[in-house]
């Protein structure tokens, strides 16, 4: 704040025995720019002290000391800082001091210390004119016993919140009271908890409950060099140092201190090379930063920008870890983050979508236009200047970790809106190797796991929202848990231990629930120097806390190394030797790698191919065309399709045509079909002679006994416009076996709302394989009989009767529309009775008008109503009616129905505490997920619309978009994309304030019960 009367100082608090005595802003008698000020006072503490909280602010940098120890530091006067200080106090005389500074003006500060005793007595110590003040602080000035007799009195600028004080426009007594009421010190000592599901022998402690109003909601964490932790708020509350209560010391307390550096919104933190590296995920501020101590006083106050990153939101920049040798960094980002300018790449950078048939974008517009490489991992030098692409093809891998062998892993996200669709990929653990590609593509374009130019999952988890990932290395746990990988799921409140078994040059994994709870929105985890596992909960503005899990059982916890066979050690060493050729030209690469292109180990085949692709094509093209081993040829020709010139396509297709596909193993045939697809998608459509020869080779295989083979055969034959494809494709569609239902029962029980909706889908699973055939057949324009057309569109109508993810119906609608566009005008008229039906499902009950509210709801009045009446004996039908009548269903999905303009509400009971839920309903602008943020759309004619923008074209070319305004009962505005001049982000939630005011108390409480029951009429709250 650049004003002459700006305060920043180190102040002394005079003891005032009163209830919430009002502190004053204090400063020095002489005000000037670039000022430092020092203040102190003494006060007495009696026996029986129960809690002590200090709250204060300074314009613009504040440090508070208690008995010589710094307990708080802040650099933003508009945000009050607070911290518990009981651990720093002792019976008798104590000292509290403030150091204030302002780089551009005078330093002014205030502070209030509240002491609460077991007998209910409360004493406040507040800044006022009795404090001692000086312009310099000599050595030991903040310590007990310092002689301040030469110091003068502090100058009072005014009482906090009073008229005429410049800071009053932001800092009021109400804000001060709210800060102190934020339940700052609920767990001064480690408190064993019994509300979490743990494995036998493990104990959990609640170490700290985060005051959301002051310290935000923590989403990132790393070990600090002093044995503590660094943590970050997802929003703008800043970074904090945490000194956890000592393990095994019942009297020890957790102390949280804000860092002075003006930086926040980190989703990746790492202490490395004597600095704190911070990966900020905050739109225009996103990037890699380095925090250091500028003056050697132990405070991280200097912020250095190492690299700006173009990305943000929940799919933005994320984690930071050391490389295997500890000399560099790995940094990862989600698929809404553009790849930074790189100085190198382990794999060639000629990314492509590599779709043989046109993809459809997400039916609700999510990630529309996002292209390869998707989410990525880069190797970065400590100075942040050199970035090398290490891996790509993720959707939204939030965190990464190295296991004890130095192998990298992540937990990548699913797209829950795709559930029930053939292109759905569950949340999954990936082994990240050099140059790897994991095949995320937007919309229907996600690559199947069997694509030879990608790598598969180590283990599929199922639906979820991945957050932290940490290896158990260093944990004082039994051996199998030291060697486990721990992955965190925010949605289902579950931390899994992934037990890895070496297999070939990679691993196979099994998941085991390690910690779970409801709600338990897990965000990050680390293994501390004491051998315990620390984890945070929070995110999206929810209540945050810090926990610790440690082992108290009888098993041996001595450090243990994973036992491996000679074969797996040799296989991993071979892969590493091939990876040494990645990202560079080497004359020995082709000769070394070629014998391994046909390896039975998929990871070795992959590493060998990337080694070859990094070499000049001229050095290996002829060898690829002459290769006779079917698998080696498939892999080599995939490499050639990716890196060769289009002119080589005739010879490439001739090489593919030499193999009798009927005599090959399934994985080899799939690899050869993928080579065909890549040659067409990358090199173009061949001449008719080549097409006829390919059809003659491939068509006899359809149908096969393998669903995967049938899928790829149909894909290639649709592209080639094979004469038999309509008949054979429709026969497969008619006769396809029911989908294999995944075993997610245990997982879904942990989130009865969100999980219950998914369970409904599993109980009546959509015919996903048939939908896949329909998706591909939509591209065939000619060769249909009317009977076949009718069968096709009747299937679409039948498929729409099944439950699926939020985009399920929209995808079916788009498939139908694109297939209809390939019909003749006469066919369109004849098919109108079939194709004119709406595929959206509506409610099966009457929606009644609400009686209306008798007052305007606030978060406080709503919470008071819940506490007074409880959520028992509520009326299910009234709650459901409130949900539909107020318009929630228009934007939100719940219990398997509704829109996707806003977040899915099925899992609110697992994610939100009651105060958080009430805040989301009554104060929707406080926390807005970027996935559901509004935009201001300006048309070329100057007209402006505000709402959530959803592209509805469903094809590669954007034709029109829907704008869902804040009126949940209004139809969306449909505009032509070509007529849009600009789209800018809005800071307002799409959900309008005051929605609760349409309900009276009974209707509102019934709605809360409906949401918290997850739509279950048999829930106890309706008894």
Describe this structure in words.
- By secondary structure, the chain is α+β, with helices and mostly antiparallel strands.
- It is built from 25 helices and 48 strands.
- Strands 6-5-8-3-11-12 form a six-stranded antiparallel β-sheet, with no helix packed on it. Strands 25, 26, 27, 28, 29 and 33 form a six-stranded mixed β-sheet that branches. A five-stranded antiparallel β-sheet has the order 1-10-9-4-7, covered by helices on one side.
- A hairpin with a 4-residue loop joins strand 44 and strand 45 (944-951).
- It is globular and about 100 Å long.
- The chain starts with 12 loop residues before the first strand and ends in an 11-residue tail after the last helix.
- The model is unreliable at 1-19 and 953-957 (pLDDT under 50).
Major beta sheet, strand line-up = 6-5-8-3-11-12
By DSSP (H or I, 4+ residues per run), the number of helices equals 25
- What is the averaged pLDDT score? 89
- Content-based structural category: alpha+beta
The global form is globular
**How big a fraction of the residues is strand?**
25-35%
Report the C-alpha radius of gyration, rounded. Answer: 31 Å
Helix content estimate: 10-25%
| Uncertain parts | 1-19, 953-957
Major sheet attributes: 6 strands, antiparallel
Q: Report how far apart the termini are.
A: 57 Å
Counted beta strands: 48
Q: In terms of topology, how is this protein built?
A:
Elements: E1 13-16, E2 24-27, E3 35-45, E4 49-59, E5 61-66, E6 69-74, E7 81-84, E8 92-102, E9 108-117, E10 122-127, E11 132-134, E12 152-153, E13 155-159, H1 173-180, E14 191-192, E15 197-198, E16 202-209, H2 212-215, E17 218-223, E18 229-233, E19 239-243, E20 255-258, E21 266-272, E22 275-280, E23 287-292, E24 302-308, E25 317-322, E26 329-333, E27 344-345, E28 375-380, E29 387-394, E30 400-402, E31 408-412, E32 427-432, E33 436-437, E34 459-462, E35 466-471, H3 479-482, E36 485-489, E37 494-503, E38 506-516, E39 522-527, E40 533-537, E41 545-551, H4 566-579, H5 589-593, H6 602-613, H7 621-626, H8 630-643, H9 649-656, H10 666-683, H11 688-698, H12 707-720, H13 725-735, H14 745-748, H15 752-763, H16 768-777, H17 786-799, H18 808-821, H19 825-835, H20 859-869, H21 876-885, H22 888-891, E42 893-894, E43 897-898, H23 908-911, H24 914-922, E44 933-939, E45 944-951, E46 960-964, E47 973-976, E48 980-989, H25 1001-1012
Parallel strand pairs: 27-29, 29-33
Antiparallel strand pairs: 1-10, 2-13, 3-8, 3-11, 4-7, 4-9, 5-6, 5-8, 9-10, 11-12, 14-16, 15-38, 16-41, 17-18, 18-19, 19-20, 21-22, 22-23, 23-24, 25-26, 26-28, 28-29, 30-31, 31-32, 32-34, 35-36, 36-37, 37-38, 39-40, 40-41, 42-43, 44-45, 44-48, 45-46, 46-47
Helix pairs in contact: 4-6, 6-8, 8-9, 8-10, 9-10, 10-12, 11-12, 12-13, 12-16, 13-16, 17-19, 21-25
């Amino acid at each position: 704040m650049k004003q002459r009367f700006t305060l920043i100082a180190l102040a002394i608090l005079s003891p005032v025995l009163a209830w919430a005595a009002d502190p004053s802003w204090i400063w020095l008698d002489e005000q000037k720019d670039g000022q430092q000020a020092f203040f102190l006072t003494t006060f007495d503490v009696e026996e029986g002290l129960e809690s002590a909280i200090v709250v204060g602010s300074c314009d613009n940098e504040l440090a508070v000391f208690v008995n010589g120890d710094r307990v708080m530091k802040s650099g933003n006067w508009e945000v009050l800082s607070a911290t518990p200080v009981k651990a720093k106090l002792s019976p008798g005389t104590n000292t509290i001091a403030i150091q204030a500074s302002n780089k551009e003006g005078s330093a002014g500060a205030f502070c209030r210390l509240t002491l609460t005793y077991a007998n209910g007595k409360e004493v406040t110590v507040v800044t006022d004119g009795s404090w001692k003040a000086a312009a310099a602080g000599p050595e030991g000035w903040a310590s007990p016993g310092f002689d301040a007799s030469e110091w003068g009195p502090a100058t009072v600028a005014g009482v906090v919140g009073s008229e005429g004080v410049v800071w009053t426009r932001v800092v009021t007594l109400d804000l001060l009271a709210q800060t102190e009421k934020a339940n700052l010190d609920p767990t001064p000592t480690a408190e064993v908890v019994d509300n979490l599901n743990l494995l036998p022998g493990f104990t959990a402690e609640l170490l700290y409950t985060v005051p959301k109003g002051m310290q935000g909601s923590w989403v990132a964490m790393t070990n600090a060099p002093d044995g503590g932790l660094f943590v970050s708020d997802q929003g703008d509350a800043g970074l904090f140092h945490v000194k956890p209560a000592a393990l095994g010391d019942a009297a020890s307390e957790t102390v949280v201190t804000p860092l002075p550096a003006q930086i926040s919104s980190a989703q990746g933190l790492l202490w490395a090379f004597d600095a704190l590296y911070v990966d900020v995920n905050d739109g225009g501020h996103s990037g890699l930063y380095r925090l250091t101590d500028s003056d050697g006083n132990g405070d991280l106050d200097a912020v250095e920008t190492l690299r700006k990153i173009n990305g943000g939101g929940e799919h933005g920049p994320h984690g930071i870890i050391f490389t295997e040798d500890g000399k560099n960094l790995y940094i990862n980002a989600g698929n809404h983050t553009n790849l930074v300018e790189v100085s190198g790449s382990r794999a060639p950078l000629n990314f492509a979508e590599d779709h043989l048939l046109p993809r459809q974008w997400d039916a609700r517009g999510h990630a529309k236009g996002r292209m390869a490489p998707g989410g990525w991992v880069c190797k970065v030098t400590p100075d942040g200047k050199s970035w090398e692409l290490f891996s790509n093809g993720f959707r939204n891998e939030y965190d990464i970790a190295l296991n004890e062998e130095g192998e990298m892993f992540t937990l990548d996200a699913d797209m829950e809106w795709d559930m029930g669709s053939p292109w759905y990929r569950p949340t999954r653990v990936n082994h990240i190797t050099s140059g790897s590609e994991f095949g995320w593509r937007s919309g229907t374009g996600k690559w199947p796991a069997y694509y030879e130019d990608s790598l598969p999952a180590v283990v599929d988890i199922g639906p979820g929202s991945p957050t932290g990932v940490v290896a158990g290395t260093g944990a004082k746990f039994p051996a199998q848990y030291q060697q486990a990988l721990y992955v965190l799921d925010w949605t289902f409140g579950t931390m899994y231990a992934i037990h890895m078994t070496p297999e070939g040059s990679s691993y196979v994994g099994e998941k085991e629930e390690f910690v779970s709870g409801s709600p338990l929105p897990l965000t990050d985890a680390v293994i501390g120097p004491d051998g315990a596992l620390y984890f945070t909960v929070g995110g999206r503005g929810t209540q945050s806390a810090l926990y610790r899990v440690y082992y108290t059982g009888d098993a041996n916890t001595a450090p243990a190394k994973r036992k491996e066979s000679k074969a797996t050690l040799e296989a991993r060493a071979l892969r590493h030797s091939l990876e040494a050729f990645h990202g560079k030209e080497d004359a020995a690469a082709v000769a070394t790698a070629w014998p391994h292109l046909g390896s039975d180990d998929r990871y070795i085949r992959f590493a060998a191919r990337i080694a070859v692709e990094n070499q000049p094509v001229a050095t290996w093209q002829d060898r690829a065309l002459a290769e006779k081993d079917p698998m080696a040829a498939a892999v080599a020709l995939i490499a050639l399709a990716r890196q060769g010139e289009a002119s080589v396509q005739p010879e490439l297709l001739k090489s593919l045509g030499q193999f009798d596909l009927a005599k090959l193993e399934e994985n080899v045939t799939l690899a050869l079909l993928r080579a065909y697809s890549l040659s067409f998608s990358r090199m173009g459509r061949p001449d008719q002679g080549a097409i006829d020869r390919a059809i003659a080779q491939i068509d006899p295989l359809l149908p096969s006994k393998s669903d995967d083979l049938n899928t790829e055969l149909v894909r290639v034959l649709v592209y080639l416009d094979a004469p038999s494809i309509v008949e054979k494709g429709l026969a497969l569609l008619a006769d396809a076996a029911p989908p294999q239902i995944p075993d997610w029962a245990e997982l879904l029980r942990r989130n009865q709302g969100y999980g219950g909706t998914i369970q409904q889908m599993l109980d009546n699973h959509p015919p996903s394989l048939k939908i896949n055939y329909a998706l591909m057949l939509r591209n065939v324009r000619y060769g249909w009989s009317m009977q076949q057309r009718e069968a096709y569109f009747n299937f679409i109508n039948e498929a729409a009767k099944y439950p699926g993810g939020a985009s399920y119906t929209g995808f079916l609608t788009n498939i139908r529309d694109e297939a209809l566009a390939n019909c003749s005008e006469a066919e369109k008229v004849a098919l109108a009775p079939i194709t004119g039906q709406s595929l959206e499902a509506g409610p099966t009950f009457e929606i009644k008008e609400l009686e209306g509210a008798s007052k305007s709801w606030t978060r406080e009045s709503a919470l008071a109503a819940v506490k007074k009446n409880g959520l028992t004996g509520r009326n299910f039908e009234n709650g459901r009616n409130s949900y539909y009548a107020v318009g929630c269903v228009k934007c939100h999905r719940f219990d398997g129905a509704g829109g996707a303009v806003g977040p899915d509400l099925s899992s609110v009971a697992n994610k939100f505490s009651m105060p958080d839920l009430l805040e989301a309903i009554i104060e929707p602008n406080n926390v807005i997920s970027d996935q559901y943020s509004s935009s201001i759309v300006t048309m070329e004619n100057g007209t402006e619309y505000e709402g959530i923008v959803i592209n509805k074209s469903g094809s590669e070319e954007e034709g029109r978009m829907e704008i869902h305004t804040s009126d949940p009962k209004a139809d969306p505005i449909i505009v032509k994309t070509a007529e849009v001049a600009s789209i800018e982000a809005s800071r307002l939630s799409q959900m309008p304030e005051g929605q609760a005011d349409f309900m009276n108390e009974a209707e509102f409480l019934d709605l809360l019960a409906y949401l918290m029951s997850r739509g279950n009429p048999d829930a106890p709250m309706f008894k």
